[in-house]
Amino acid sequence: MSASHPVMPPVPSLLRSAAIQRRVIAALLMREIITRFGRRNLGVLWLVAEPMIFTLFVAALWTAIGGHRAPGMTVVGFAVTGYSSVLMWRNSVSHNVHAVRENINLLYHRNVHLYDVFLARVTIEIAGATASFFLLATFFVLVDQMPLPNDLLTMAFAWLMLAWFGTSLAILVGAAASYSDVVARLWQPLSYVLFPLSGAAFMVSWIPDQARKYVLVLPMVHGVELLRSGYFGSAVRPYYDMAYMGTVNLVITFLGLALMRRAQLRLEAE
Amino acid sequence: MIEIQGVTKVYETRFGPRKVLDDISLRLEYGSNVGIVGRNGAGKSTLIRLLSGAERPTAGRITRRMKVSWPLAFGGAFQNNLTGLDNLKFVCRIYGVDHEPLIPFVEEFTELGVYFREPVSHYSHGMLTRLAFALSMAIEFDCFLIDEVLVVGDKRFHDRCHEELFVKRKDRSFILVSHDPKVLKLYCERACVLHQGRLHDFESVDAAYDYYNAECL
User: pLDDT tens, A41-65?
Assistant: First the structure.
């Protein structure tokens, strides 16, 4: 190899930075996928298969014990809409709890920022959950276990809001966990408590009036309600306030970014 | 150009904050080089981490107008269950370089043989060092960060490192840290002494050498 004279890097511009960041995130994506899923057997398909299998088990279980039925909505459809969305934000956070510790040495590469690491990991989770949701819904529509979706645009909006929630919470929890291992340890039980409360297993209209306002404090409940409203249309009576969910998402985003900024000052590389 | 302005680095310990670098400043122009000598624990590696951007200063700022390398031969950024080739591809993607033309050089330099396509976790320390060094050479940088303790190996490895770095790339900048002032005399045109958190700048390597021997040992 010849050691040709290097070109002086041009002065950073916003466009150039965006191009670098796209490249870095793409590289991290490849690295994550090979590291996590390897090249053997299903490989990257596990990314989609994992949430699919999980959702299928829940759907089967609920069908067996005779879950909630309503005209225009099926047990399977209820499980698929609920669990795909909950898995998306939960996995986004769970796979990022140790993101800082596991990737701190990548910061030796000037182009890599911690945000890139988070965005790459979150992208993987969101892609997996979205593909799983899409494949399951298509399959169950074809075998007549789910009706056709009512309003794709509303669903897409609800899905994006849930993805934003997952991304911002992942950054907040990941940054907090870099301060203390306690955060990482607490996240596990917390995610178990949040799981049934998050709207995956019920609709707000089914629970007693007094309990509704407490459940609706959780931002993801609004997202799941809107998603089901988009899918099942008038068959469900949804409770949601997307302005509220957006506000909470925004607050989590700012808290996460601020905490990450502070955390970066005290991180210690190898 | 790379410039350190009033940089302080404080680490938290169980016995309270510990100031490792205290208001240090340094400027290096494109094409020139500097050696920094200091005793064990003087903060040399900390300075390298700050220069590479892996850590942020507690106070002060570092301005880079050159493409600065990661610490030479540093293998800590490898993904252990990826192969040497995968790690080469990853680094190339990050820096926006095509990896294909670099494979012959990296294979030849590292002498890894079949292990180039085995997971890095199976590598010996020497193999890891050779791969890390080869990758630092594969990407073109304006300024190399060299922590002497990282570049350890046999005579053959040292000779080849010397050839790649100080002969083929003698037009580049570098910042070399070492606990051995003789190393600085060999390679650097200018030298600083890092002692008790302060950085003392000297016009000549000889002046730094004398100061170090008189004040720090």
Answer: 677 888 888 889 988 998 888 888 8
Nearest to B187 by CA among B203, B213, B205, B171: B205
Q: How many domains does chain A fold into? A: 1
For residue A239, how far is the Cα from the chain centroid? 21
Q: Looking at the domain assignment, is residue A107 inside a domain?
A: yes
Task: Identify the residue among A24, A109, A270 best suited for mutation to test binding to B, counting B beta carbons within 10 A and taking the highest.
Answer: A109
Closest residue, chain B, to A104 (C-alpha): B54
Establish if A8 belongs to a structural domain: no
**Strand intervals (E) in B30-123:** 33-38, 59-64, 68-71
CB B55 to CB A4 under 8 A? no
Residues 3-42 of chain A whose Cβ lies under 8 A from any Cβ of chain B: 3-6, 8-9, 20, 23-24, 26-27, 30-31, 34-35
State the Cα–Cα distance between residues A166 and A93, nearest whole angstrom.
6
Q: How far is it, in rounded angstroms, from Cα B160 to Cα B156?
A: 6
Residues 95-154 of A with CB under 8 A from B: 104-112
Candidate from B65, B71, B77 with C-beta closest to A106? B77
User: Mean pLDDT over all residues of chain A?
Assistant: 90
Tell me which residue range forms the domain holding A108. Answer: 15-269
C-alpha–C-alpha distance, residues A110 and B67, integer Å: 9
pLDDT value, residue A1:
42
Instruction: Give yes or no for a contact between B106 and B138, defined as CB atoms under 8 angstroms apart.
Output: yes
Which residues, 6+ apart, have CB-to-CB distance to A24 below 8 Å? A111, A112, A113, A116, B93, B94
DSSP one-letter string for B135-172: HHHHS--SEEEEEGGG----HHHHHHHHIIIIITTTTS
Domain annotation covers residue A10:
no
- Quote the Cα angle for A95-A107-B131, to 5°: 100
- Hey, of A5, A30, A108, which one would you mutate to test binding to chain B, going by the most B CBs within 10 A of its CB? A108
* Tens-place pLDDT, residues A198-211: 988 889 999 999 99
Residue of B nearest to A111 (CA): B94
Q: Is B144 part of the contact surface with chain A (CB cutoff 8 Å)?
A: no
Report yes or no for ipTM above 0.85: yes
Element containing residue A136 per DSSP (H, E): helix A114-142
Tokens of B99: 């990896």
In a domain, A110, yes or no: yes
